[in-house]
Specification:
Blueprint lengths: L1 H6 L2 E2 L5 E2 L4 H8 L13 H9 L5 E2 L12 H19 L9 H13 L9 E4 L1 H13 L5 E6 L6 H6 L3 E6 L7 H13 L6 E4 L13 H14 L2 E5 L15 H9 L8 E6 L11 E4 L2 H15 L4 H12 L8 H27 L5 E2 L7 E5 L6 H12 L1 E2 L1 E2 L12 E5 L5 H26 L40
Parallel strand pairs: 3-13, 5-6, 5-7, 7-8, 8-9
Antiparallel strand pairs: 1-2, 4-10, 9-10, 11-12, 12-15, 14-15
Helix pairs in contact: 4-12, 5-12, 6-11, 13-15, 14-15
Bound molecules: pyridoxal-5'-phosphate (PLP).
Length: 487
């Protein structure tokens, strides 16, 4: 654990590591900090970013797409175009709601998701992350309730903490958030006089869970939101990164169908981003929200950064005008190549998990996105495991606790398969598997329980849990004190 604390440094945008302040230095400012800063903790993901810079570490921790796939010549051409044609606009402040040319690109991406939106209901933001922050700024007073999935996006955890939200997390299964449990939770909260300000969900290839909310659940969630007049924040960075299976409608489009207001939704606020389909470095995302909500989000954004970068907004505009040789929009062709690349990497990670984790773990098999969620025997704490994995094997992942606000998730881990090539994926999983086997063996020695075999799993003998169709099964262990998690 001490090693881990030393290893985690505040992220430096230039890629270096910054020393943490000493206790004595902190003491000087302690009494001045606002009360809300007490609950703040650094996102495990951000901490990991500095580790990815170390050449000897294989990091399966970040949420990184592979930006080396973007052609340098195209990047140079587009930036030159922005410079030649729009220097003054690029270097000037822009409108808070976003430049109209960028809003048009947003409308095009949303249309590709089968979701038609009114450009007046779009707010261009500094990454999708800013939407989460603005939603909290606009809706959350200290102690207000947010309902989220369990596990949830690790990057949302520090934001919810910063606004002192009370987050109630609902454990997912292979179809995402179970809506009957959501309803029971809402009933319970209502009986306690608590009405959640919004329900936060990542319906497609959830980060970190890798699971997708089924169509019946989507429909029911929208129905519940309308019936109870409750807001839903639909966070959808990965919807277009589907490697197999049929695309499902967004919650926004399902609500809009019922609302019958020309594509406008009443209760779903949509979060989108260019980060995973183009680049996180351009820091551009968006919100789509009913006008009264939009106005508040706009005001909150004015206080945060006035506007998102016109330089990168114009870059996106130039990119969306680019055509591939066959006439298709270049961004669609790039997206297709990303999907092919990530599908191959996902398969490489699934194969490596079979080979190196074997029956000592179960994991999700996502149909898209960037992440696999693996769960180890309950007696393994992945925060401790990470310290060991880093120290002795030079490999990193996100420990499961980062995706919970209540200390759960200790035996799980998030693995990114998009940012590394197949060789590093395989080697990274081999190294983690080695540390896991050591822990399983140690547990067996200490307790007399039969350690789970670490050989490749015989798939034909696997007993799929009916509730967890996409999750592989852990073998039953002999030790009576160790309960198996069911979801
Ligand atoms: C679920 C989810 N929401 C929001 C974000 C924030 O993305 P960005 O700010 O780069 O648009 C991410 C990034 O990984 C994410 O996975």
């Amino acid at each position: 654990m001490r090693y881990l604390e030393q290893a985690m440094t505040i992220d430096d945008p230039h890629g270096g590591e910054r020393a943490r302040p000493t206790a004595r230095e902190l003491e000087r400012y302690e009494a001045l900090f606002a009360a809300r800063t007490k609950g703040m903790r650094s996102s495990a993901m951000r901490d990991m970013m500095s580790l990815t810079e170390r050449p000897e570490v294989i990091s399966l921790a970040g949420g990184l797409p592979d930006t080396s796939t973007f052609a340098p010549e195209l990047y140079a051409k587009l930036m030159s175009k922005v410079a030649a044609e729009s220097t003054a606009r690029a270097l000037q402040y822009g409108p808070t709601e976003g430049m109209s040319c960028t809003v048009e690109c947003v409308v095009e991406v949303m249309a590709a998701e089968g979701t038609h939106v009114d450009p007046d209901e779009v707010l261009v933001t500094t990454g999708g992350q800013q939407v989460i922050d603005l939603m909290c700024k606009a809706f959350i007073d200290p102690g207000d309730t947010i309902v989220a999935e369990a596990p949830t996006y690790p990057g949302a955890v520090p934001t919810f903490d910063a606004y002192e939200a009370n987050v109630v997390q609902i454990e997912m299964d292979s179809d995402g958030m179970p809506i009957d449990e959501l309803e029971q939770t809402l009933d319970r909260l209502e009986s306690e006089g608590r009405s959640p300000k919004f329900i936060y969900t990542i319906p497609n290839f959830q980060n970190p869970g890798g699971v997708t909310m089924s169509l019946p659940r989507r429909k029911r969630l929208v129905h519940v939101a309308r019936e109870r007049e409750m807001l839903v924040l639909e966070d959808n960075p990965y919807g277009l990164l589907r490697y197999e299976g049929e695309a499902l409608p967004t919650l926004h489009s399902l609500d809009a169908q019922t609302a019958k207001r020309g594509g406008a939704s009443d209760f779903v606020i949509y979060l989108g981003t260019f980060s995973k389909i183009l680049s996180p470095g351009i820091r551009l995302g968006w919100a789509v929200a009913p006008r009264p909500v939009m106005e508040k989000l706009n005001l909150c954004k004015q206080g945060a950064d006035l506007c998102s970068s016109p330089v990168t907004q114009l870059f996106v505009d130039a990119y969306f005008k680019e055509r591939a040789p066959d006439g298709t929009p270049a961004w669609r062709a790039h997206l297709d190549s990303l999907k092919e690349l990530y599908r191959v990497r996902r398969d490489a990670m699934l194969r490596a998990l079979e080979q190196h984790f074997g029956s000592s773990a179960r994991w999700t098999e996502p149909q898209g996105g960037l992440f696999i969620w693996a769960t180890l025997p309950e007696y393994i704490d992945t925060t401790d495991l990470l310290a060991r994995a880093l120290e002795s094997e030079g490999v990193a992942f996100v420990p499961g606790r980062a995706a919970y606000l209540d200390g759960r998730g200790a035996s799980s881990m998030r693995l990114n398969f998009a940012g590394m090539d197949e060789r590093d994926i395989s080697e990274g999983i081999r190294r983690i598997g080695k540390v896991v086997r050591e822990q399983v063996g140690l547990f067996g020695t200490l307790t007399g329980a039969e350690p789970a075999p670490a050989q490749p799993k015989d798939k034909s003998k696997a007993q799929p849990d009916p509730d967890l169709a996409e999750v592989l099964e852990l073998p039953k262990r002999k030790h009576p004190d160790v309960k198996r998690r069911t979801s």
